[in-house]
């Protein structure tokens, strides 16, 4: 035996942004004698970087890193050694470094809602200065 119930509700939806990661909506429902309220809470996930930051190349004054692209990211933030820049592509080259020095940078993905992902570390050193006699 099958029972089909057709109920028509008039919906008025108001959406509230309560924080950077949640959307709340209150939906009043009314159909004849039936009244109620439907409350929704939707979480918007931050992007997630999986994998590792990989070293690509270095000179005595630059380092180049890459990582697996994140499909839900609109940009990436690279932070470390006086660098706090956003990029939209990978690989990224950091210039103006000191020859023979060790550097650590962190990368986060930034979603379209501005939410930042977990971070991954990029670690390597520039090559020694070329000495010409």
Tell me about this structure.
The chain has 133 residues and is mainly beta. Strands 1, 2, 3 and 4 form a four-stranded antiparallel β-sheet that branches. It has two domains: 10-43; 54-125, Immunoglobulins (Immunoglobulin-like). The protein contains no helices and eleven strands. Residues 1-11 have low confidence and may be disordered.
Shape: elongated
- Please count the beta strands (DSSP E, at least 2 residues each): 11
Distance between the termini: 95 Å
Estimated helix fraction: under 10%
Number of helices: 0
Largest sheet: 4 strands, antiparallel
- Regarding CATH, which class of the largest domain? Mainly Beta
SSE arrangement, N to C = EEEEEEEEEEE
* CATH topology name of the largest domain: Immunoglobulin-like
Mean pLDDT over all positions: 76
CATH architecture of the largest domain, by name, is: Sandwich
Estimated share of beta-strand residues: over 45%
Number of domains: 2
Which residue ranges are poorly predicted, with pLDDT under 50 across at least 5 consecutive positions?
1-11
Pairing-aware structural class of the strands and helices?
Answer: mainly beta
Q: Specify Rg, calculated over alpha carbons.
A: 25 Å
Looking at this structure, what is the CATH superfamily of the largest domain?
Immunoglobulins
């Amino acid at each position: 035996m099958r029972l089909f119930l057709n109920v028509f509700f008039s919906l008025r939806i108001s959406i509230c942004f309560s924080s950077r990661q949640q959307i709340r909506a209150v939906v009043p429902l009314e159909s004849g004698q039936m009244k109620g309220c439907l409350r929704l809470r939707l979480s918007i996930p931050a992007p997630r970087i999986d994998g590792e930051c990989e070293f690509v190349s270095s000179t005595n004054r630059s380092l180049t890193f890459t990582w697996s692209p994140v499909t839900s990211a609109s940009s990436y933030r690279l932070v470390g050694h006086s660098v706090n820049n956003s990029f939209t592509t990978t690989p990224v080259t950091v210039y103006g470094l000191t020859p023979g020095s060790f550097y650590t940078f962190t990368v986060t993905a930034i979603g379209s809602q501005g939410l930042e992902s977990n971070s991954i570390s990029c670690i390597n050193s520039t090559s020694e200065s070329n000495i010409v006699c």
